[in-house]
Amino acid sequence: MTRTPLPEERRFASLAQLTFEGENAEAYYSSDGQRLIFQRRHEGEYECDQIFTIGVEGGDPQLVSTGLGRTTCAYFFPDDSRIVYSSTHHVAAECPPPPDMRRGYVWALYDFDIYTANPDGSDVQSIFSSPGYDAEATIAPDGSRIVFTSTRDGDLDIYSMNPDGSDVRQLTNEPGYDGGPFFSPDGSKIVYRARYPESEEELGDYQALLAEGLVRPGVLDIYVMDADGSNRVRLTNNEAANFAPFFHPSGEKVIFASNLNDPSSRNFDLFLIDLDGTGLEQVTFSEEFESFPMFTADGRYLVFGSNRHGSHEGNTNLFIAEWIDDLP
Q1: d(CA 146, CA 39)
Q2: How far apart are CA 290 and CA 185, in angstroms?
Q3: CA-based end-to-end distance of the chain
């Protein structure tokens, strides 16, 4: 369905809504730009998130995960020959319980393992497993490495590995939450979100939650590092929740989601920022949640998840914007 961008959304030449019911999020393009892989939960289908694909023109989503357990963080291999995602189906066919919000707003670190499969969901193979959280896997543009987040060594850190799960290398090691990594277009850098506790009290809270399989994402910042974990650069420092970063196809900017206009709210917008932390530019302006942006390789289109035009509270849908790179 064609939608009209808001007047302030100068980067959008056009806007289309692809989904209309349930919770649809974390949509990422196939290498040919013709399909999206994403996670979805809709009443009457599956009890919790499963992985689906859909064409960029819309249509009926196609289930490509097992339909068991909870799934998250799906991505196409660069040649579209396989998909990668994380699932708890090895633990139980049922959904794991939601996190206990008596500790405040927290994310649950479920016992995900990382799997690959054919694009239609067949030939499911486990490529990485540890007793805790293994998820957020994405792939270098040349297909040479997978980068992911894991608690395998007792903290939330970023790792890389070969596409078959071999040669696992730890890239971050400072206490705190490192996650959501994506490679730059040339594969030389990784952008990610992180929070490093700034006091003994905050560190204690983080470690206590981690022991319970929880993390508090109230404050997160965007960082860039080299693909081997060196030369870390902090791009944001605003006491807000900045997350879901992705490189602009030029490799010179990063787009990300943030509630920096109101850090106490769920009103997240998309922003662009230069690799040195300057040049911050607001991209979306709705009063709803917007996140999980990804560009096509040629930079012509941007997909993101949003609550705008939602049919009910919590209705998150996928939108594709035609991108204007050179503003007048």
Answers
A1: 19
A2: 23
A3: 27
What does pLDDT average to over the chain?
Answer: 96
84: which residues sit within 8 A by CB, 6+ positions away?
A: 74, 75, 77, 114, 115, 116, 127, 137, 138, 139, 146
Task: Say which residue the tokens 């900045």 belong to.
Answer: 242
In DSSP notation, 145-175 reads -EEEEE-TTSS-EEEEE-TTS-S-EE---SS
**Residue whose tokens read 């209705």:** 315
Q: Which amino acid is at 275?
A: L
Check if the beta carbon of residue 222 is closer than 8 Å to that of residue 233: no
CA distance 140 to 183: 6
- Tokens standing for 146? 């997978």
Report the alpha-carbon distance of residue 284 to residue 303 in Å, rounded. Answer: 12
Q: Helices in the chain by DSSP H: which ranges?
A: 200-211
Residues contacting 38, CB < 8 A, separation 6+: 24, 25, 26, 27, 28, 51, 52, 53, 54, 61, 74, 318
Tokens of 224: 């860039």
- 241-267 residue pLDDT tens: 999 999 999 999 999 999 999 888 889
Tell me how long the chain is: 328
- Determine the Cα–Cα distance for residues 124 and 63; give it in Å rounded to an integer: 13
Q: Are 314 and 305 in contact, with CB atoms under 8 Å apart?
A: no
Query: For the whole prediction, is pTM greater than 0.70?
Result: yes
Phi, psi angle pair for 195, to nearest 5°: -140, 120
